[in-house]
Design brief:
Blueprint: H1 3-17, H2 20-40, H3 51-74, H4 78-92, H5 101-115, H6 123-133, H7 140-151
């Protein structure tokens, strides 16, 4: 089952159960996907949104909500911060399992060995391969410094 079909199925179920928070979050995912499709229509090679694209969209939505929750906490708006966290948990249901720190280190080591990288100049190539293979499974904001430290 594609990720898009799974989202549609969950949307129907949330409607039946009258789960308003889940329903509004799933509708927001659908709207964001449709916006992306509309923006692609002008491209020469317009194609349907893939599961990898949907994972990237949802990943960005999670990061936005994390930043919002942090801002709400700093502003003393705990009820809004809690709602953002609830939306994050719904969004994370559609993301692949996050890799553990040990798995991330192993993936970095494997990629360094496979590419023969030996200096920080090779970091971009390693990060590109990691993003290609492990999209949505690791936080590349944290992985970048780990790769840099390993190569220096």
């Amino acid at each position: 089952m594609s990720l898009r079909a799974r989202i549609a199925s969950e949307l129907k179920q949330a409607t039946r159960l009258r789960d308003t928070l889940r329903l509004s979050t799933l509708r927001l995912i659908n709207a964001t996907i449709k916006d992306r499709e509309i923006s692609r229509r002008g491209d020469d090679e317009a194609q349907e949104i893939s599961d990898a694209d949907i994972v990237a969209i949802i990943g960005r939505m999670v990061k936005q909500r994390q930043e919002s929750a942090r801002a709400f906490e700093e502003g003393g708006r705990m009820e809004l911060a809690e709602r953002e966290r609830e939306e994050i948990s719904i969004l994370e249901d559609f993301l692949p399992r996050q890799m553990t720190e040990a798995e991330i280190h192993a993936a970095i080591e494997a990629e360094i060995a496979a590419t023969g990288a030996n200096s920080v100049r090779d970091m971009g190539r390693i990060m590109a391969h990691l993003k290609e293979r492990y999209a949505g499974q690791m936080d590349f904001g944290k992985v970048g410094p780990m790769v840099r430290q390993r190569l220096s």
